[in-house]
């Protein structure tokens, strides 16, 4: 009778051998390393450009020291300012003399256009082209230039009861709170280089006395305006 016994296994039996884990190919690792290198190079270039631009701006500011122009209302003559409630019409005649100061040591300023709007109680009653292409000019560094605006005519101006009460109060006091807003179009010049257009706004809050008929000039205090770029 044949012996059917299984062969004796000496030691532990672990089953079939597990194949080794396949390592990433050399080409895959190289592509991944190249992508990382490119990202690091791009980041270094971007940081260098930001630093260079910042240094250029800082050097320009230290050398040129650009400053905004200064603007004043130094004279005002209000010979007529009458409001008729029957037809909601205001009659006005006002002349303002302005002064623009360029405080820069290296920059000249071209005044290409200046438009002035006059308001009373937040209602616009007049406008005037102070500077046009016909009288535009170049203002040299560290210099002062004069401008003027003439507001004259009549305009329909609807005022509510509170605004009419304020008008009567100012009329009795002989002086009116007037707000003038000026729109500029200017350019700067450094050597032979001329900048693009800049459009700052100037806001002037002034109290203008009503001129008297006698020979004594009406006193007006010079007012510095706010310049907003």
UniProtKB/TrEMBL annotation:
GO biological process, one term: defense response to other organism
UniProtKB keywords: Membrane, Transmembrane, Transmembrane helix
Positions of transmembrane segments: 41-64
InterPro entries found in the cross-reference section: NDR1-like (IPR044839)
The organism of origin for this protein: Clitoria ternatea
Compartments (UniProt record): Membrane
UniProt superkingdom: Eukaryota
The protein, known as: Late embryogenesis abundant protein LEA-2 subgroup domain-containing protein
Principal subcellular localization: membrane
């Amino acid at each position: 009778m044949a012996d059917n016994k299984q062969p004796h296994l000496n030691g532990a039996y672990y089953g079939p051998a597990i194949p080794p884990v396949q390592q990433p190919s050399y080409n895959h690792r190289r592509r991944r390393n190249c992508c990382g290198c490119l990202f690091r190079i791009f980041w270094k270039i971007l940081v260098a450009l930001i630093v260079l631009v910042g240094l250029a701006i800082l050097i320009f500011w230290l050398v040129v020291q650009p400053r905004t122009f200064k603007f004043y209302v130094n004279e005002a003559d209000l010979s007529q300012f009458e409001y008729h409630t029957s037809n909601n019409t205001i009659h006005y005649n006002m002349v303002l003399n302005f002064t623009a100061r360029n405080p820069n040591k290296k920059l000249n300023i071209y005044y290409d256009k200046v438009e002035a709007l006059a308001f009373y109680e937040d209602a616009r009653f007049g406008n005037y082209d102070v500077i046009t292409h016909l009288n535009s000019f170049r203002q040299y560094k560290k210099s002062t230039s004069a401008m003027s605006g003439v507001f004259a005519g009549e305009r329909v101006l609807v005022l509510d009861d509170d605004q009419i009460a304020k008008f009567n109060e100012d009329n009795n006091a002989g002086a009116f709170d007037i707000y003038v807003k000026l729109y500029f179009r200017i350019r700067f010049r450094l050597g032979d280089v001329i900048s693009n257009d800049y459009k700052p706004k100037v806001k002037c809050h002034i109290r203008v006395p009503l001129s008297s008929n006698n020979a004594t000039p009406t006193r007006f205090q010079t007012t510095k305006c706010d310049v907003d770029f």
